[in-house]
Design a protein that fits this description.
Distance between the termini: 101 Å
Helix content: 40-55%
Strand order of the largest sheet: 5-6-3-8-9
Largest sheet: 5 strands, antiparallel
Number of strands: 9
Number of domains: 2
Number of helices: 3
Low-confidence stretches: none
Radius of gyration: 53 Å
Order of helices and strands: HHHEEEEEEEEE
Mean pLDDT: 80
Strand content: 25-35%
């Protein structure tokens, strides 16, 4: 763009020099040759003037665009500075909040540290706290009520029918309290529940009820003495029996065949 400007300026200077030489060499401006040359110079001058105007407009637009871009960059820079300061403030607040939480945690841990060190004086603080944590977990587990889980399910065919023996295992070695069991057969089943009783040991508060159609039976009792609890269900025929109970026992379908 600079070269073009210099070129236009040089041509304008040459036009003036040429016109000066023309006036000097041909003082008579009425000749046809002189007129044609002057008209050509005038046209060339007008063209150069137009080119200069276009160049000036282009330069103005380019300058305006550059100013706009610079303004946008300044705004972006200001926004980044604001975000930087805000992030620093947020980081400072988070640090203060974290320090406050650490202080609170240390304050809450102090009683446990004292208990752990007094209970395990020969251990370092970290190991003493770990041992205390295990003791607390064990105490919580012991405080939970005793529950049952399935130990085994055996099916035997006898003269009476099919005997289903279900044994259970308590989670803790302590009295488990009253047990309640329910056995159900599908309505369209050919089998009937003939008997429903405990399989071992003595019991208190023993109650049993079997529906007249033999499709539903309920047994409840409180085990007395040692040994794991269990029940016997006697069916007249093969069937799918639904069994459930209390003390955390999961419902189960037993296939008797």
């Amino acid at each position: 763009m600079i070269c073009l400007k210099l070129g236009v300026l040089l041509i304008v200077v040459l036009i003036y020099v040429f016109q000066f030489v023309l006036d000097y060499k041909y003082p008579d401006k009425r000749t046809k040759r002189n007129k044609s040359i002057r008209i050509s110079l005038l046209v060339l001058f007008i063209v150069l003037l137009g080119i200069s105007a276009v160049m000036h407009i282009f330069e103005e637009r380019k300058a305006t665009k550059l100013v706009t871009e610079i303004s946008g960059l300044r705004l972006q820079n200001d926004s980044l500075i604001v975000l930087h300061h805000k992030s620093q403030e947020d980081a400072s607040k988070n640090t203060l909040s974290l320090l406050a939480r650490i202080d609170t945690l240390e304050s809450n841990l102090e009683p446990f540290i004292e208990i752990a060190v007094s209970k395990y004086p020969n251990l370092v603080v970290e190991r003493a706290l770990k041992k205390l944590e295990l003791d607390i977990a064990e105490t919580k587990a012991m405080a939970k009520p005793n529950t049952l889980s399935y130990s085994s399910v055996d099916i035997n065919k006898t003269e009476k029918g099919y005997v289903v023996r279900i044994d259970f295992r308590p989670r803790k070695d302590e009295p488990i309290g009253q047990l309640i069991f329910v056995a159900k057969l599908p309505i369209n089943s050919k089998a009937r529940i003939l008997d429903f009783d405990q399989s071992r040991g003595s019991a208190a508060d023993w109650r049993r009820w079997i529906s007249t159609d033999g499709k539903f039976a309920r047994l409840s009792y409180t085990p007395m003495g040692g040994g794991d609890p269990g029940v016997n269900i006697v069916l007249s025929d093969t069937a799918h029996i639904s069994f459930e109970g209390n003390k955390g026992l999961d419902p189960r379908t037993i296939h008797v065949k």
